[in-house]
Automatic annotation (TrEMBL):
Allosterically activated by ADP and other diphosphonucleosides, and allosterically inhibited by phosphoenolpyruvate. Homotetramer. NCBIfam families: PFKA_ATP, PRK03202.1. This is ATP-dependent 6-phosphofructokinase. Its EC number is 2.7.1.11. The keyword Cytoplasm applies. SUPFAM superfamilies: Phosphofructokinase. The active site is at 128 (proton acceptor). It is found in: Cytoplasm. It comes from Desulfotomaculum copahuensis. Its cofactor is Mg(2+).
């Protein structure tokens, strides 16, 4: 193997740059050449590609976002789009591809290696942490810390004004961010897509708290469970409490990556290159119980990862 490509795809996540750096430097260390593909599969189709050198990844380990930029490509979902990308594989002489992204990106990668047999290694990069085959995906830790930081700040003003705050966090289909940020932020209630909830129960809990003299309440809602604005409206209607809603949105996707995410990204990036060099294909690298592992992309895509319900129940007990 002489030359590999690397791209970032889907929603960006803090730590993707550290992963790109690890892929480029590990590959060059072993004598490989690396082609950076800009704007994910969109750039793959459009040949927005250029060689990366050691200096291309200097001074990026601490930066959020992705220097390769990213996109959600509709065209790559079609055989015609993938055929155009295959032309660029030949044009640039790629013998392997590293895809850093989430579920949708891996489905694209899977279709591509099935059709054309190009060895592919996936690296989980999404703040949602919803990729099976890895306990953590790159960016989740930073996103949770950003959310907790925001909750801390909101708590200050919530206390001063004796208000109820609904804080909506990201998590399209899963409640990983909501659960972690809610537990770490001491939320009264956490709403996640994996667990049914009733507004009545939430309001009862709020009222019990206020009767005990609680000055404020924090409710964390995963966007995939419900809209924060709607929850706020219903709580206000039922309880009459002064209720405010904050949607954290994309601030959770930006910012300097935590040390955890940088270390994870560095380890996963290096492992992805090792896998390609060993001749493996259709794999995703991940971390399980602290160890770097690899799994079949097919299995990763087929399995749904769910939150730890024991942790969810614990958050309920501790916020009684
Ligand atoms: O990458 C995951 C994610 O941040 C989800 O939590 C969120 O629903 C989605 O991306 C938002 O995507 P976009 O930035 O394309 O609106």
């Amino acid at each position: 193997m002489q030359r590999i490509g690397v791209l970032t795809s889907g929603g960006d996540s803090p730590g993707m740059n550290a992963a790109i750096r690890a892929v480029v430097r590990k590959a060059i260390y072993h004598g490989l050449e690396v082609i950076g593909i800009r704007r994910g599969f969109t750039g793959f189709i459009e040949a927005d590609m250029e060689p990366m050198r050691l200096g291309s990844v200097a001074d990026i380990i601490h930066r959020g976002g992705t220097v390769l930029h990213t996109a959600r490509s509709e065209e790559f979902k079609s055989p015609a789009g993938r055929a155009r990308a295959w032309e660029n594989v030949n044009r640039f002489g790629l013998q392997g591809l590293v895809v850093i992204g989430g579920d949708g990106s891996f489905q694209g990668a899977q279709a591509f290696y099935r059709e054309y047999g190009l060895p592919v290694a996936g690296i989980p990069g999404t703040i949602d942490n919803d990729i099976s085959g890895s306990d953590y995906s790159i960016g989740f830790d930073t996103a949770v810390n950003s959310a907790v930081d925001a909750i801390n700040k909101i708590r200050d003003t919530a206390t001063s004004h004796e208000r109820t705050f609904i804080i909506e966090v990201m998590g399209r289909d899963t409640g990983f961010i909501a659960l972690a940020a809610g537990l770490a932020g001491g939320a009264e209630s956490i709403l996640i897509p994996e667990q049914p909830f009733s507004i009545e129960d939430i309001c009862d809990k709020l009222c019990r708290g206020y009767r005990r003299g609680k000055l404020h309440s924090i409710i964390v809602v995963a966007e995939g469970a419900a809209g924060g604005l709607e929850i706020g409206k219903q709580i206000k209607q039922r309880t009459g409490f002064d209720t405010k809603v904050t949607i954290l949105g994309h601030l959770q996707r930006g910012g300097t990556p935590s040390a955890f995410d940088r270390i994870l990204a560095s380890r996963l990036g290096a492992k992805a290159v090792e896998l390609l060099m060993s001749g493996a294909t259709g794999k995703m690298v991940g971390i399980k119980a602290g160890r770097i592992v690899d799994s079949d992309l097919d299995k990763v895509i087929a399995c749904k990862k769910t939150v730890d319900l024991d942790m969810f129940r614990l958050a309920g007990i501790l916020s009684i």
